[in-house]
Amino acid sequence: MMIDNSYLLGLFGTSTTTTSSTTSAATTATKKTQPTAPWSSTETASKPSDLVRSALAGRRLINESAVDLDLAGASADYTRLFALYKGLETLSALADRAGERGLSAIELAQTQKRFASGLEEVGNWLSTTKFEGVDLVQGVSSTKVKTTAGIEKSSTTFVSQPVHMGAISEPVAAFEGDVRFTMTVGSQAIQIDLADMGDAPRTFGAVVQHINAKLGDAGVSTRVSYEQIPGEAKTVKSGDKTITLPAGPDQWAFEIQGAVGETVSFSADAVSDAVYVTQGVGTKGVDQLLKFQADGGSAPAAAARVGDAFAVDGQVGQTALPEGVGTVRASATAADGSLWVVADLTAGDANQPIKGKSDVALMKFDSAGNLVSTRLLGAASEASGFAIAVGDDGRVAVAGSVTGALEPGKSGADQTVADSFVTVFDATGAEMWTQRRGAKAEDEATAVSFGPDGQVYVAGRARSAMPGATALGGWDGYVQAFSEHQTTPIAPVQGLAGAVAQFGGVGDDSVQAMTVSGSDLYTAGVENGRMVVRHFTLGEDGAPVLSATRDLGLAQGSIAGIAVDNGRVILTGQTENAALDLGAPTTAHGGGSDAFIAVMSADLQPAASDRLTYVGGEGDDTAADVVVKDGKVWITGANRAAGASDADPSQGYLSRLDPETGAVEWSRTWTADNAQARPATIAVASGGASVLDRLGLPQGEIAQTNAKLLTQATALRVGDQFTVTPGNGARAVTVEITAKDTLDTLAKKIVNASSRQLKATVVTDKTAPFMQRLEITAESNKAGAVISSGAPGKDALGALGLTPGLISTTAGAESKDRKAYGLSLPNTLTLNGKEAIKASIEALASAISTVRSAYKGLGPQTAGTLTNSLTGKGGSTAYYDTQAANFQAALARLSTTA
Fold first, then answer.
1. DSSP conformation letters of 360-389
2. What distance in Å separates the CA atoms of residue 320 and residue 303, rounded to the nearest whole number?
3. What is the mean pLDDT of the chain?
């Protein structure tokens, strides 16, 4: 049977002159045009174990001299590409090894360390290596990039919390009764009293008109309006079906329309104390901020805000914490009534990305529950916040643990092991100084307090000796002093580490609470399974010297807090021990786990004045946090059935007790979504509750300006950096973040670093909240530039929300001369944990696939000149051209065997 080659080739849009040409076509199709790739089936694949062994021996991951091409005259790009492939293959082998079961701790640590240095090697190589036929970058290739990090444009408009639900024409329940407050605009204090409205219905429109009349009489430009918050449809699950419910009624809030140059603040004469509780609710890890009005004082009766679910008597506010909050462990009030909250973030806000796996956020809320600011610690890898303290001068200290770099380029003795840190902020939330102190093994700071003469004291635990101390075995407790220093009045404040005391026994010990009163410092924790309180005397240099110790017996629980009040030491926590060593309890243990309040003398010696009170019922009762104010103990926690798991129902509670008598003076309990309420922290604000709560308005001045400095508004730290390599052949330039950098100054730095190959401008979102961001494009008719990550531990791109890569006018476009490829390989990859290992393996697999694509891109795009038999023109696509060439080779083989 005769095979019509022309017919068969025509199926692929090609033709030949004669059937005899198939032999020469086959020769053309099989002619070697590229060197054999190391991943080719004809090549012997490297054994992963050999790659790991070579890497751990310290050999370079990328070695161009070790590449041997089997095609004479091949482009040097192939040498570079194959060397890169080998490096990525080795990193992948290290990641696979780290995920294997049975790996010893020593080998895992070695593998993690080598992976980190290898990733840095690959990044450095990519940033300095030039390819001739393709553009290959560590990140992505694009024509335009924009930071996801943004800074909200300052606005004179402020919207309150919701005040009314329903029709705008209806009288508003929150406006009924005695509603009086002062609205201060600039220097004008304007008295607002709704009683002046007489018998007129107190609708939203009428109240707004009344307030604006008062503002007009005062001659100020600021005005008040109202804003509609449309009701939203809700969905519920019924078996396997999702049912959409009709939208609820609209809500309405005050809108303060400020004027340039006019500050606006609110106050009320009739006030009561406010208590803030942060809690986790439901089963999805949602966190809330609750506000309660304490009894006493002169504030009008408490009223829950519209839309607050599960509200109980005395509750005046409920606010959802931002998404990405993983854990809240500490909170404290400031002198102006605002609330500071320390939270661990597992993901940054959409406008405020974090650099690594987790970070610590210091969030400030006004008295109405509005988030005023968020300051990120800026950890390069992982960080956790455990404690907070607010000084008399408004300074805020945050302490916790950090793994990897914190201060740019400084990763501690071991970048895979947690170290203690303390950061001090001024009253506005601007960072003043940070100190990282670490033992060779793990350590963490779990408590922080301000002491005399501006000193800061940090307490925690360590698995080995802290600098300047001696290890005692297992986990030890420690206390360290820090002082502040300025070389000149205008120089930055520096934190200086002082004396340290390490204590405990051969077992595991911890410090779970600390307080400073004058020259006395007290710690409380669990030491070798026992509840221990220690008293230190502070020397003239601030050094803590142990004076007394008291063992209260088996802990069988934990410490929530310790305070000194009227010469008494008050200790609070939870325990299953019904007989703590403090004498007969005023209230007996109720069974399971109970909260407890212990009162001791200041010298910790047993005395007739000692008191012990258990708080709880037959189930398990926790003590999450405690505050001592005016001689009374405020305590919050959860209670659930004895032996219940974390998934079982739990109620939150808030109580005030007299520590001397054990009497419960005020108490509230509540539930939440899925019957899960898990209180975490407590803070008390003197005079923090007033009629303003029901109006959704904060006490004090409303924020009308936002931080412009990048180190305050983002996760960037001074010294973070990235590299810009101009496409015109100029040398790479490092862009470093300084304390005074803004979006505008950073834009100028990028333009200059790119030799004006790039254009960087500040753009504003077109929808609220009108965030300002940095947009980077290539200049017209210019080569563009490559933006590369900074060194591990000091990379700025993650905090800016930028991906390293090529920015050019032709990036992503089809080009017959040159193609661009992005590896999408973050320099933040680690092997610290199963999730991190999985992410690293996936990222490396994608990068290796991109290298293979770049190999194809370097090769010829067609197999000779082929003609479309239907049009008489060139082949329709490279795909069909390749298919035709393959088919011609097959025909040649058929002809040979015929």
1. EEEEEE-TTS-EEEEEE---SSEEEEEEEE
2. 19
3. 88
> Could you give the C-alpha distances from 100 to 93, 104, 740, in angstroms and in order?
11, 10, 46
User: How do residues 210-247 score in pLDDT, each as one tens digit?
Assistant: 999 999 999 999 999 999 998 877 777 677 787 887 87
Closest Cα to residue 501, out of 465, 525, 529?
Answer: 465
255 contacts: CB under 8 Å, gap ≥ 6: 157, 158, 159, 160, 224, 225, 226, 227
> For residue 813, what pLDDT band results from cuts at 50, 70 and 90?
very low
**692 pLDDT higher than 50:** yes
Query: CA–CA separation, 98 vs 832, rounded Å?
Result: 9
For residue 693, the 8-state DSSP code is: G
Helical packing angle, 105-128 and 48-56, nearest 10°: 90
State the DSSP H helix or E strand holding residue 84, giving kind and residue range, or none if neither: helix 76-98
Complete DSSP assignment for 9-63:
HHTTT---S-TTHHHHHHHHHHS--SPPPTTSTTSPPPPHHHHHHHHHTT--S--
Instruction: Label residue 863 by pLDDT band (50, 70, 90).
Output: very low
Stretch among 23-37, 196-210, 329-343, 833-847 having the lowest mean pLDDT:
23-37
CA–CA gap between residue 702 and residue 690 (Å, rounded): 16
Encoded tokens for 352 = 């405020």
Answer whether 717's CB lies under 8 Å from 297's CB.
no
At 611 the three-state DSSP class reads strand
CB 602 within 8 A of CB 584: no
Calpha distance 748→144 (Å, rounded): 17
CA distance 231 to 245: 11
Beta strand pairing call for 785-789 and 721-726: antiparallel
- Phi, psi for 775 (deg, rounded to 5): -110, 130
Categorize the per-residue pLDDT at 443 as very low, low, confident or very high, splitting at 50, 70 and 90: very high
**CA–CA separation, 324 and 371 (whole Å):** 14
Cβ 695 vs Cβ 254: under 8 Å: yes
The CA-based angle 696-700-704, given to 5 degrees, is 85
- In which element (H, E) is residue 81 found? helix 76-98
Q: How confident is the model at residue 23 (pLDDT cuts 50, 70, 90)?
A: very low
Q: Residue 878's CB: how many other CB atoms inside 10 A?
A: 12
Calpha distance 582→30 (Å, rounded): 91
SS3 for 93? helix
**Both structure tokens of 38:** 């190391």
pLDDT at residue number 792: 77
pTM for this predicted structure:
0.83
Determine the straight-line distance between the first and last CA of the chain, rounded to whole angstroms: 10
User: ω before 249 within 30° of 0 (cis)?
Assistant: no
* CA-to-CA dists, residue 136 to 82, 90, 232, 788, 811, angstroms: 13, 19, 47, 12, 11
pLDDT band, very low/low/confident/very high, at 818 (cuts 50, 70, 90): low
The answer to whether residues 841 and 115 touch, using CB atoms and an 8 Å cutoff, is no
Residue type, 184: T
Which segment of 103-117, 400-414, 701-715, 748-762 scores lowest on mean pLDDT? 400-414
DSSP per-residue codes, 840-853: HHHHHHHHHHHHHH
Packing angle of the helix pair 834-858, 76-98 (nearest 10 deg):
160
| Beta carbons of 360 and 330 less than 8 angstroms apart | no
SS3 89: helix
CB atoms within 10 A of CB 310: 17
Reported as a pLDDT band with limits 50, 70 and 90, residue 748 is very high
Q: What band does 411 get if pLDDT is binned at 50, 70 and 90?
A: low
